[in-house]
Amino acid sequence: MLELLRIRDLALIEDAELEFASGMNALTGETGAGKSFIVRAIDFLTGEPMGADLVRPGKDKAVVEAVFVAEGENGAPEDLIIRRELAAETGRSRVYVNDRLASLETLRELKPGLVLHTSQHGQQKLLQPAFQQRILDGFLAAPELPAERDAALAGVRAVQAARQELAERMETLSRQREFLEFQREEIGRVNPLPGEEDELLVRKEALKGRERLEEARARALEALLGEVPLAARLGELARALAQLAPFDDSFDADREAAEDFRHQLSALDARIRRLRLDEGEDDIEAIEARLFELAKLKRKLNKGLDEIVDLGRQVEENLSFLDSCALDAKRLEREEAQAAQALGAVLERLNAARKDAADRLCARLGQELAGLGFSEYARVEFAFEPAPVYSGPEGELCELRGRLFWVPNPGQPPRPLDKIASGGELSRFLLALAGLQAESARPTLIFDEVDAGIGGHTLTRVGERLQALAARQQMILITHWPQLARLADRHFQVRKDVVDGMTYTGCARLDQAAIAAELARMSGVTA
């Protein structure tokens, strides 16, 4: 039950607070005063979109909040507080449930148990065969069947898509087979390895370094061991310096330096002879030949070596796929047959359930309509047409889709509701359907001028039905008929005023005196 509704800074409403009764709550007022907009605020609160242009000019955001009383897990009543804010700058909204941030999906999940809104717009929806089918599915004894149908159909379509993808790939690769085999032969003949070219270049550079080393080593040994070895000449120099020392003792130091250097040359000779690079088994001519072979393959395929290695792997995969795809095609064919069989089983159950639901719904609708002023001979029925949902090798699978037919008067053949129903008849159809739809969850019923096109004795019958529904569950009724407004347990008047050049929409609960005045206004009675 909707206990309290507050609207702030939404369009013409600056601040309105409504405390509803548990039975029938009537909203009345002049045309254009903003009655339907209050109901629109409830829709916004329960998940419907609303544009940023509806935030009151000059305000940062609009806020709609409400207190619902719901039955808790232990059966005791519990408050459910919902607030939704609409930002003027961005048009984005924020949702709070019991003061905790929530999502729009949460609101949509809560809505069926909170409100059921029926409006004049619903008359146009009622004329749509797809909407009529959704109504019928709402009365299935096994309400999970449409979801099972969707899941089974999605499974079939997934396999069909896989088969289509496989067939397209087979066709494409079959056209390319000759070229793929040419690429495989060219790549296989050279058989390049990942990173092989870089490795060969490193080895080639190492061989060139070995050549430079041998050349430098030979020159060093030649300098040390030429026709007259450098060590022998240093020995002669040392002996000559020794002969000079008696004449000048400073030559002793020079002689010692020459002797030291002669000994160093001996060690240097040994070090140079020991200096060698690991010769290994590399052959620079073989490396050059391999690099040339790789370069030729790169030119032929117009790709880098790493790309060619990847291409070789892809070519092998594609050719292997072509060799094995027949098995995959057979496997997918079996899977599609199994998925189609599962879909057929679900459709069989769904079609039977829809026929059963149609019988029960039409019987109930006939009773409801008889209580709303229709002829006791009026008959409602669903006509079913098979609609293909799958076509495959095993044949076609169809689901039965129902369209609402009725006979308002005896002696007439059944005709589609959208072909013969008047506005007043559609209003009563909506009222009857809403009463049946709300039997289990018992949400707050919102009727927005559902009494359009009705008058006279029929209006009295509608009033009686509205009273009976309001005794069962809470109702918010927007009406222009005083005959209906007078039945309300609580009466609110919506009015539009201009103050200091600004327009405001307000909503006030009426006392008995004000109710009498409002009913007189609605009746066109002047004081």
Helix content: 40-55%
Number of strands: 15
Helix/strand class: alpha/beta
Low-confidence stretches: none
Mean pLDDT: 84
CATH class assignment of the largest domain: Alpha Beta
Largest sheet: 6 strands, antiparallel
Global shape: elongated
Percent strand equals 15-25%
Per the CATH scheme, the topology name of the largest domain is Rossmann fold
What CATH architecture of the largest domain would you give? 3-Layer(aba) Sandwich
SSE pattern, N- to C-terminal: EEEHEEEEHEHHHHHHHHEEEHHEHEHEEH
User: Any idea how many domains?
Assistant: 2
Separate helix tally = 15
The quaternary state of the protein chains shown equals: single chain
Cα-based radius of gyration, to the nearest Å = 47 Å
